[in-house]
């Protein structure tokens, strides 16, 4: 309880970026906690990866919303653990269900609940197939190897702002092209 180790560092990392996601989405098993919750009992007291809670608190303090996207077949155990860890109220959306799609339907539901567009979301997961599928729909997606940590947070925010800047540049290109069109046809007339 109250273990916010890494929060100060996470706040510093977030402070380095001008462009930030509106919503950060986390997988559960092997992303927020180091186990499959389907293999555990509800009676146990779970623990998170060392910096996970600090990162959640830092995002909260910066006014960034959070959500959960998990394909765990035991949503009841996952929910019990989120409660026991006192982090359940931090999530605006919590989608936990098994599915044949690689979480794209989880993200459709998260979008419906929050109204946040995919290109304003950042996603952390330990399975490459989920990362591949979710990045295709426009969400900046980061593969974690030892759970979510400060390195993954920095990588995620870096990639998010790169994607954002690329999209803005493309938008500008299209606007320029569009606004030049009438002039060039005028010239030809
Ligand atoms: Mg996982």
From TrEMBL:
Any one GO MF annotation of this record: acid phosphatase activity
Gene3D superfamilies noted in UniProt: HAD superfamily/HAD-like (3.40.50.1000)
NCBIfam families: HAD-SF-IIIC
Stored PANTHER family: MAGNESIUM-DEPENDENT PHOSPHATASE 1, MAGNESIUM-DEPENDENT PHOSPHATASE 1 MDP1
Name by which UniProt lists this protein: Magnesium-dependent phosphatase 1
Organism: Morella rubra (Chinese bayberry)
